[in-house]
Hints:
- The structure is a single chain.
- By secondary structure, this protein is of the alpha/beta class.
- It has 2 domains: 5-234 and 288-298, TIM Barrel (Alpha-Beta Barrel), CATH 3.20.20.220; 361-510, no CATH class.
- The protein has 20 helices and 12 strands.
- It has helices spanning 5-10, 31-46, 66-75, 91-104, 133-145, 176-191, 205-217, 233-240, 251-260, 268-285, 299-312, 316-319, 361-374, 381-391, 397-412, 430-433, 461-471, 476-479, 495-500, 506-510; strands at residues 18-22, 51-54, 80-85, 108-112, 148-151, 154-157, 164-169, 196-199, 224-229, 289-293, 334-337, 342-347.
- It has an 8-stranded parallel β-barrel, surrounded by 6 helices.
- Helix 7 runs parallel beside helix 10 and helix 8 (233-240) packs antiparallel against helix 9 (251-260).
- The longest helix has 18 residues, at 268-285.
- It is globular, with a radius of gyration of 24 Å.
- Iron/sulfur cluster binds at residues 408, 412, 414-418, 420-422, 429-431, 495.
Amino acid sequence: MRENRFRAALQNPSLFPVTWELVPGRGAREAAQDRALAQAAQAAAGGDIAALTLTDNPGGTPAMSADFMGGEILKLGIEPLVHFTCKDKNRNAIESQLYALDRAGVRNLLVMSGDYPVSGFRGRPAPVFDLDPIHVLQLISDMNRGLELPGPKGAVRHRPSDFFAGAVVSPFKATEAEQMIQYYKLAKKIAAGAEFVVTQLGYDARKFHEVLLFMKQSGFTLPLVGNIYILPYGAARMMNANDLPGSVVTDRLLADIDRERSDPDKGLGARILRAARLYAVLKGMGYSGVHIGGHNIPCEQVREIVRQGEALAPGWRELVRHFDYPLDGGFYCYEKDSATGLNREEPARFGARPSDAPAGALYGFARFCHKLLFEPGRNLYGAMKTLCGKVAGSRVEGPFHKLEHLSKVALFDCRDCGDCALIDTAYLCPMSQCPKNQRNGACGGSYQGWCEVYPGKKQCLYVRAYARLKKHGELEQLKNNIVPPCNWDLSQTSSWINYYLGRDHTAKKSGI
Length: 512
Ligand code: SF4
């Protein structure tokens, strides 16, 4: 099999590979696609860029398929790193997409939730988030081992694929709940098979250092790649206004970039220097490589950033002060080390910090009912199990289901998926309270605790779940518990019967 030069470079501690982000753009034979392929040819000819990353419908707007462009780029002699999002397709479409990529020899994937779809042909498309990144990473790991499927004459095993799949993490969250959930989810992504990690873009050195410390202290030794975005004023203003979910630009950074616009070169030199300084700081801190992005940046700019960054790298400690852009009242997992401008190694004590969201009285009631009815072997669990066994398949199953559903609509805005995850998400329904139906933690798009899709209106489900569980000392529940995807076989059926009779996802866990 052909050597994967991106994997080889990233796993070699003496190298510091650079990836460059290309945006395939909307259309098929437009200037954006021609430009992306011309840039790819230029990068391939230089041999100094380890992989070209390809965005997948960024901003939730349709664009040329990143997979297809990945195949085209491979033909030019450079490794593609395809952004593989979970949006717009169900699990069968995802599996089929992975087969096509495997066949085409496109092996480097950066798995992420993806942006909520915002526009499409004749209106907003249906949002589809059937799997989350953890499920996709599990599927890829299974495929790399040789996917085993039932066949008419017994199990059939496919030839193993050779995907090199990574995950993303954002250390740039403002609240304790948002940040810790990002880290809990990162741990699950690694358990699911992620082989490298790329950060969200940001300009706070302490936050870049925080995720490095978190990984080190968690015993995660996989490569961590830092995101460097060449930031012009227009993009900075959009990020500052939260128009690009997950990307953080503080007021002070925006003001600095605004001032740089009056330079004779309209701020170009300052933008390149900021990116080169960040390159140096990330390399000095111990990152394994960098991912360079920016709207329509030419190959020469990427090379200039690397050139300047390498020259600045020996003095990286002096450059940390250029990335002192904390969010107002922003949360950090570690105390500041005033000598370095980064973090001290001991985790901060934040157990007593006030909650980022109210726990709510309903949760107390739900918790009481849970202990009474749903904890195996306790209280009314046995009686409920016997009752559900008798009701299942009988004439009263329909009315029983209706009654259950009505009570769950009133209390939890239940959508009747039948594979209930309330137990996993502090009694907040991911099918109605999370527009991306995430069952394993928040996506990267939350902002100041608000949901990406409803900023200022609805708090992120996981910010609320964190507050509920923190109040009761039960945060472990969000940490190691990988919740499988919803089984649509159970849709519109009684989740209580499915739970007690061991038909839903909890059966394996509780041994029912
Ligand atoms: S059964 Fe499904 S839709 Fe209903 S509350 Fe549980 S998770 Fe939500």
